[in-house]
Specification:
Elements lengths: L11 E2 L8 H14 L7 H9 L1 H4 L3 E5 L2 H11 L5 E4 L6 H7 L4 E4 L22 E7 L8 H11 L2 E5 L7 E2 L2 E2 L6 E5 L12 E5 L2 H10 L4 E3 L2 E2 L10 H10 L3 H19 L5 E2 L14 E5 L1 H4 L3 H10 L2 E2 L26 H9 E4 L6 H18 L9
Parallel strand pairs: 1-15, 3-4, 3-5, 5-6, 6-9
Antiparallel strand pairs: 2-10, 7-8, 9-10, 11-12, 13-14, 14-16
The structure holds ligand T4K.
The site of ligand T4K has 23 residues, from helix 4 and helix 5.
């Protein structure tokens, strides 16, 4: 392509939250106002928990005020301690949920195709202090749950999954939360399904669910009994009400995202140096992000060149997840954080670029974005002269 595409007049972000009709939301608000129940497991909370069994499966669901508190509560409820094996290719919340409890995250390299924890490298990282495996379904790509489950069982380890991006993901017909001891889902505004801020943990063990409920409410068992050192990480009624409105929109949103993915796929699939994510199926994948990879070795154009040039066209793509968590200040001096221990994660972290991906973007904008990405890759890091 030799004619330079036009810039966008307005900034285009990596995502925009799905919002229900305002009147639909205010109907729920009216009910909340009438009841004067604003938190602590009120009717909206109860109803949302019930509705989420559809996308999240039959496990026990505990709702939270955000995904990070959900993870921190799960780490405590699972009684993890010492060292826990995890991935460096994730959001800060993953290792922080361990370190906050004084647990050492042990970073293990990822698989190049799924970008999730590589089971072949887990065994070598297990020590007598290891109590669990904490893997992430990155972008909603399922981890190798069978292999991780086998290792955990053989070595007596707990398995916690960070499924922040995996709302509705299925593996061989089973909801992703069927695997491991517990799975966290984030309901942040940037997620496919959201409650502005929020999250959930899904688990199969009823005792674990009871512990989670206790811990998220100060450890209070009843008016006169505080059983454990808990925190306050409860989802409130306004969050739950928003969730009840948004959950009805998810299927249509996924269909729109699928069309956008097809546009990106068809327009960018043949661009040298760009690798597409695997084809996603709206029935079994979350369609949370559309993340391409740009291999500098092919054309000399780096991911950062493209990322920076896109901003000049008013496109704010994101480098999820760069830098790696193992390079963050609290973790970078760990022996396992050495780049030589994490070569795949470093390569992937240097290549990924999440393109704008949300239903309201529309296919016409996705076409324009694709043309700009292709143009930028073709013209490299040269100073691009912008059309008005
Ligand atoms: N584990 C993993 C693997 C995660 O990815 C995350 C969160 C967590 C755990 C923790 O879950 P939570 O505690 O957050 O529930 C965002 C989100 O804040 C974060 O939830 C998410 N992962 C992470 C991948 O992305 P930022 O710093 O990139 O977000 P921000 O504010 O730059 O938003 C990105 C774009 O989205 C903006 O440019 C515009 C748009 N946006 C954002 C918000 C908040 C909107 O249009 N409306 C909005 O309200 O972290």
């Amino acid at each position: 392509m030799s004619v330079e595409p036009r810039s966008f007049e307005q900034p285009i972000y990596v995502t925009r939250p799905m919002l229900p009709e305002f009147a639909v939301f205010t109907k729920h608000l009216e009910a909340i106002w009438q009841s004067a129940i604003l938190s602590n497991g009120g009717p909206q909370h109860v109803e949302l928990e019930r509705r989420l069994h559809g996308p999240l499966g039959d496990g026990h669901i505990a709702l939270f005020n955000n995904g990070t508190n959900a993870l921190m509560t799960a780490v405590k409820a699972l009684d993890l301690s010492g060292e826990v094996i995890t991935t460096p290719f994730t959001f800060a919340a993953t290792p922080h949920a361990l370190a906050w409890h004084g647990i050492k995250p042990v970073f293990v390299d990822i698989d190049d195709s799924t970008m999730t924890l590589d089971p072949a490298r887990i065994e070598a990282a297990i020590t007598e202090r290891t109590t669990g495996i904490f893997a992430v379904h990155v972008y909603g790509n399922p981890c190798n749950v069978e292999a991780i489950g086998r290792i955990a069982q053989a070595r007596g380890l707990k398995v916690l999954y960070d499924g922040a991006h995996a709302f509705g993901t299925k593996v061989e017909g089973q909801p992703i939360a069927a695997f491991g001891d517990a799975t966290m889902f984030s309901f942040h505004a940037t997620k496919l399904f959201h409650t502005a801020e929020g999250g959930a943990v899904v688990m199969n063990d009823l005792d674990l669910k009871r512990r989670m409920e206790l811990l998220k409410n100060f450890g209070i068992a009843d008016e006169v009994t505080v059983r454990s050192v808990g925190i306050n990480s409860k989802m409130n009624e306004i969050q739950a009400a928003l969730g009840l409105c948004v959950v009805d929109l998810v299927t249509a949103e996924k269909a729109k995202r699928h069309e956008i993915a097809n546009v990106y796929r068809s327009r960018l699939g043949a661009v040298p140096s760009i690798t597409m994510p695997r084809q996603q199926n709206p029935d079994t994948d979350s369609l949370q992000y559309f993340c391409i990879r740009i291999d500098r070795d092919v054309t000399g154009i780096s991911r950062d060149d493209v990322y920076n040039q896109l901003k000049r066209y008013n496109i704010f793509a994101r480098r999820y997840f760069y830098p790696l968590c193992s390079d963050y200040e609290p973790y970078r001096n760990f022996p396992d954080s050495a780049a030589s221990n994490l070569p795949v994660a470093h390569r992937v972290g240097d290549q990924v670029l999440c393109l704008p991906f949300y239903g309201a973007l529309g296919t016409a904008y996705a076409e324009r974005i694709s043309d700009i990405v292709a143009y930028v890759v073709e013209h490299g890091s040269d100073e691009v002269v912008h059309a008005a």
